[in-house]
Amino acid sequence: MIYKRSSALFAQAQQYIPGGVNSPVRAFNAVGGEPVFVKEAKGAYLFDEDGNKLIDYIASWGPLILGHAHEPVVNAVIEKAEKGTSFGMPTAIETEIAKLAISMVPNIDKIRFVNSGTEACMSAVRLARGYTGREKIIKFAGCYHGHSDSFLIQAGSGAVTFGSPNSPGVTQGTAKDTLLAEYNNLENVKEIVLANKNEIAAIIIEPVAGNMGCIIPNPGFLEGLRKLCDENGILLIFDEVMTGFRLARGGAQELFNINADIVAFGKVIGGGLPVGAFAAREEIMNYLAPVGPVYQAGTLSGNPLAMAAGLAMLNELNNNPQIFNELADKTAYLHEGMDKVLSASGIDYTINRIGSMISVHFTNVQVTDFKTSATGNNEFFKKFFHGMLAEGVYLPPSAFESWFLNNALSYSDIDFTINAVKKVAKNL
Ligand SMILES: *Cc1c(COP(=O)(O)O)cnc(C)c1O
């Protein structure tokens, strides 16, 4: 494939934008080479500035679960745009999407919309601190909860990729309130809770981690966290920015049948526009301004275009719940196909999968946490990534990211992908 125009556009972008990108992982630093500039996309396909067609396995990092430029979503946005794009006043559609989201997700009474997953997680933690009157939080190594200060402590994907888990600019004062635990290690969490009795406001976790590859909670792990929180007056925050409206209609809470105290959303809930949200039971959400004392606000929060896209997306998922099964079937098919060709190649690998999230790790150990994820052979991944790209398959440009399937992918797209894996594996 030729990337002449992408290369020229990247050179220009670097003159005006740090690293030429508005979010670091897009720059391809983890895999080498230069990023592909996308021109347009439809369904499961990306079309880049040089006219190459690529099968997309990132779906804008999750939001586009039904594929690119999905018509009901596009039409909803166009229709709204003609009537004004922002008011800073309440609109009826905010209640409409709130009501629908609450009906789809277990165990939440009220929801507040923001503009990104980062904002949602940041606000969820502030709310937990305000509600409990405590200051510390526990997060897990390799989990990503957006780029706000408290979370940039071993934060997975982007941060890990660049080998700077603790970003300069995060103060010691902030860092000391974030306690770090190991994913899938309940004993470790218990020790931390015991050592900080009555000081921990919340445990925040990706119920399926997607920012160190795709990592599935061991049986009993999330249940154990729930019990530990209940026994110690700690709020359990599920960061469902990735898993919400993806793993099931009601996200990971529904899939694992575990109730969190506060849930953060992003990605799918905005249908590809900038939206995040956080939600909880009534008594917790009523701690939020203007009803309660915990402040949180946003000029563009509940923006009509964003709400129209999100509402159209949630309606599609709510009215067609078989989508989740179709996606899981397609992902299982991809898993089986890759298993066959990779095992024949004799390379060390392990594949993690749940629902429509999947990741390939070039290691001979089971990947269950950040440490085991980091055993993956990154040189292999780089070659694999570029090999797949040359075959016309766009994977996340980092070994520390989950792939996201979208339902516009056909079985023949997946067959094409498996065949590409077969070709690429030969040259690894
Ligand atoms: C993407 C992501 C975020 C951050 O969301 P942004 O919209 O990028 O700010 C937070 N948590 C998880 C689990 C994510 O995957």
Please explain how this structure is put together:
This protein has 428 residues and is α/β, with parallel strands linked by helices. It has 2 domains: 173 residues, Aspartate Aminotransferase, domain 1; 249 residues, Aspartate Aminotransferase, domain 2. It has 15 helices and 14 strands. The chain has a 7-stranded mixed sheet, sandwiched between helices. A 4-stranded mixed sheet has the order 1-2-3-13. It has a 3-stranded antiparallel sheet with strand order 11-12-14, covered by helices on one side. Strand 7, helix 8 and strand 8 form a beta-alpha-beta unit. Helix 2 packs antiparallel against helix 11, helix 12 packs parallel to helix 15 and helix 14 crosses helix 15. It is globular. About 1% of the residues have low confidence. The chain binds pyridoxal-5'-phosphate. The site of pyridoxal-5'-phosphate (PLP) has 15 residues, from helix 4. It catalyses: (S)-4-amino-5-oxopentanoate = 5-aminolevulinate. This is Glutamate-1-semialdehyde 2,1-aminomutase. Pathway: Porphyrin-containing compound metabolism; protoporphyrin-IX biosynthesis; 5-aminolevulinate from L-glutamyl-tRNA(Glu): step 2/2.
